[in-house]
Every structure is written in structure tokens, then in C-alpha cells.
Here is the input.
Amino acid sequence: MNKRSIGLVVLGIIVISGTRVWGFGQKTFLGTRSQSVDAAGELVGWQQEINRATRDCCYTVFSLAAKYQRSSHPDKMAQILFGGSNLVFSGSGVKDRSHRDILADYFGLPQNFKSRICFTPLITNFMMDFDWYHGLDELLPGLYYRIHMPIVHSKWDLNLSERIVSQGTPFNAQEIITPPVGAAPFKAPAAAYPAGYLSSDRIAWAQVPKTVTEALQGKTVFGDMSYPLQFGKIFGRQELVRASDLQCAIGWNFCLSDWYHAGVAVRLVAPIGNPSEAEFLFEPMVGNGGHWEIGMGFTSHVDLWCSNNENRTCAVYVDANITHLCSAMQKRSFDLTSNGAGSRYMLLTDNGSPSQNLFFNGEAGVNKPAETQYQRRLVPAINYTTFDTKVSIGVQADIVIKCAYQHNNAEFDLGYNFWGRSKEKGSRCQRLESDRFGVKGDAQLYGLNNGDNPYVLALNATQSQATIHAGQGTGNFVPGAQYTNDNVNNKKAALGNVNTSTPDQFDQLNGVDANILEIGLEPVNGSDPALFLKDSDINMCSGLNERAITHKVFTHVNYAWRDCTECTPYIGVGGMAELAQSCFQNDNGVSQWGIWLKGGISY
Here is the structure.
């Protein structure tokens, strides 16, 4: 191989890896650090005014901070939710479709449709952060309480962009219907799907979505669907204005002097923000998700150096808050264990018993009725795999260490903040009704009798191993066996009217559709027996976050007017950069950066 050939191979590998596409990610929900959990923000600016060595009087310190925060590294958030930044949707009729493509049929998109989707998730928060500190030294030296609560305007946007590769065309665009004698021929209405695949009738072209963007908004129904997507929608930018958690602490500085202090506190957090409702895949969250928190806090500082005239000082501060997040009721969506990531967006068939005129050939040639039958109702799986869930987090740690240099009334801070929480634990308060729903995959829902008195019959075909990418096994569109349900569970040819001398047999298509598609009529199969979902098929891990760890560096510049006799005003500006762990599979932290303006008064 010459140098040029080697170079082309390397270039090809780079291009392929750079355009890699994925299905959905391993998690259905992205939790973030509460806007109230910010030990660094609680400490900067006013540390000279709180934890005073006052022994005989009470005092109050108030601060207000305007903060702006913006997420970074959108690729990690996309990996958590989608496995990557790019998805490809393609219909079952697209030739040479990739095994990583998402099956467009599940969303009603045409069978020959193909589109590439790109996500660039972005979270922005603007908040007004209120802090209140009250020293109770008159009651007990070193005793205090403090309250902290931000009001947040949060914006969450997946920034979906779509490039349609193939818009698709109606399968019957050239069909001419011959009417009764004396009437003029006419062209049949354009249709996206033949009869039997998503409904007993053809699906009109005008009734299906034409873009992935439209399909994911949860506004469309097609075929036998009665209700659209109710959860996990992707619908532009979502915004929320709400107060975050109310953080309260009662503490005592057991060591207290002008040049050092150390103290402990009991912390209680009251949830004011919103719990997850799961209506949107990327829903705005303010606060900690509705958890009450209880825990301990530690605060300390020591002056390492002080000039002779005491107008310059260098000090180190260490604060730590450790809490437990109690159980909170939230809505979470879940995937199916056997069907993989993204399976919540597949279609399910609603089934019941007894069956009506659906039979299979049994032992010794005796025809037996099917145990169950499709009830002419298709449902998005997520509508039934979204549950009220009690979620708790064992421990959350927010630890800050900073160095502060003070010169007269000015101060400069530089510090590091560690934040981490353990993975979520949860238990569902609702259950999936067992032995009712089957995974449709790419199966035919109906068999069609093409005899003298044609009619359709609801089947009971299930594909328990289908995925978001394709139907079960080699699929239902193998040349020579298209639409025959050759890949369903426990396949067996469907029969009807078995009490007659010649039982009815059912084809996979009606004669007109088969002629248009240039497919020969073949017997269609049902499942004997069908395999239905059980509550144990719910993948609990998919709806619960893994641990999260972030590392933050920050700086703050502050000025205080300590020459005032009655009170001490102060004001400062700062900024931070927060970096999450890179391993998205075991860590759900979110990277972000932010700036703030913080001021207040002490009296």
C-alpha cells in the first residue's frame, strides 16, 4: 500500500468517527446541581462580616447577588440522553439503513423517510440570590442562624437541528381507481402506509408528520393511535421562573477569635423548586427536584499572615456542607430492559381476550382460538412506562476552600469547590399492567382476506426483542416475505371462520396494495402465543441518575466601606468555571461557567 492509499484510509477513519451517529442514551432524565447548592457563592464577599468575634451583641448581615450561569460541554449532556450529538431517523423502506438508525415508523414518518438530527443542549440560569445571616452572640457567643434562597429564571434548550436526507413519497402516488361502469376513473388519495401496518386502512399522507421535529413535539396521532406522545417530548426551548430551595442553618462557632474561627451547623433544606414531571425530555429544573434535605455544616478560617499595621492579611477559609436528600415524589420515564436504550419511544399494541375469529392450527390439525388479540389501539410505550417514583439521594457534599488576600477595605479571593452526590435510588409507586401490552416492532397489525367478501382481521403479533432501531430479528421486510410477520414471536399462520368447510386464510396485504408495492401475496402470521410485557420488564436504572461530581474554580474581588459607623456596605464581582467528570456512563455532572455581582450590608 502506497503512502497516498494509507492517507486516504486514515482520512476515511477520521471522517467516519467524526460523523458517528447513535441511538438514545442510557438515561431518560438529566438531573443537575441545584441552583441553591453553592458553598462558594455563600462564602465570598461577606466572609469578613459574618462569624465575627463579637461577644456581647447581635448583628445582621444581608447580601444580594445577581448571577448568570451557562452550561458548557454540550456533548456530554447529549451523550447522557442520546449516546451522542447526532441521530439518524430512517423508515423501514429505506435501503441499506444502518443498524444504528432509529426506526422512523414508530413516529409515523413515511417508510422511505430519512433525516439527520443534531442536538446541542444548553442550560442557562439567571438568578437573584438572597442571603441572610444573623449573629446571636447576645444569647450565646458564636451562635447564629442563616437563610439562603435564589429566585431563578432557567432556560433549557436541546437546540435541535434537522437535515432531511429524503422527504419520502406516498407509496401509491400513481394508483388509478376504476369506479363502477359509467363513472370516470380517479386517482386515489396519497397514502404513507398500506392497510394493515399501522391501521386496518391505509394511512393518508396528509395525516403523518413530515419531519422528526414535528413528530417529537407530541402533537400528532396516526393510524390506530388515540393519544399522542404525552411524555418525553422535544419541543423547542422550555423556560421556568421559580424560587429554588430554601436553605436554613443554625450553627455555633465553638472556636472564635479575631484571627480564626471554627464552627458546626445543622442544615435543613425546604424544597420550593419543581419536581420532575417528565413531560419533556429536557425539562427545566429549578432546585433539587422536590427533596427535603437534612445534614451538617462546618465552617472555619485562619489568618496565615498579617502585616505589622494590620492593613494587609492573608487567610484560608474552609466550609463544608453534607446533606441527605430525602425521598421525593417525581415522574420518571423508563426504558424496557430487553429492548434497550430508547425503547420507551417504541410503539406498543394493546391486547385483550377473548379473541374474535382469530385461530391457529393446533395439534392433530385441530384449529384453536388465539388466547389474545390486538384491540385496534396503538400506544407510545412512554405513555405507559412513565410512573410516579419516589427518589432519594444518599449523600450530597459541597466543600469549598479558598485563599483570601485583604488590603485595607479591598479583598481578592481565589478558591476551589468540590461538589458531589451519590447515585439516585428509587421505587415506583405505580406498576405496568402485565400481560396486556406487546411490542409492535415492524409487525403487521392486521391480516387481510382477499376472497369474494374481503375483510380485515386484527392479529396478535408481538416482537418482544424489537428495539428502537429495528424490528425483531432480520425484520419484516426481507425480500419474498415482506409484511408477512415472519419475524414475530412464535409465528403461526392466522385463520378465520374455522367452522366452515374451508377456513379463511389471511394475506399480509390487500391485492391493490400488493400490486402497487410489487409484492406477492403471502399468508400472514400471528403469535401463538403472543409475548406481552410484564412489570418486571421496566428498566429502573434507565430513569435514575448515576452519581455526579464536579470541580469548580472561582475568584471574587470585593470592596467594603468599613469606615462607616452604623453599618458596613460592600460590593464585589466574581466568576467561576465548573468542570464535570468526563465519564458520562458513571457520572451525570454538568459543566458550566458563571459570573456574578454580589453586594450587601452589615449592621
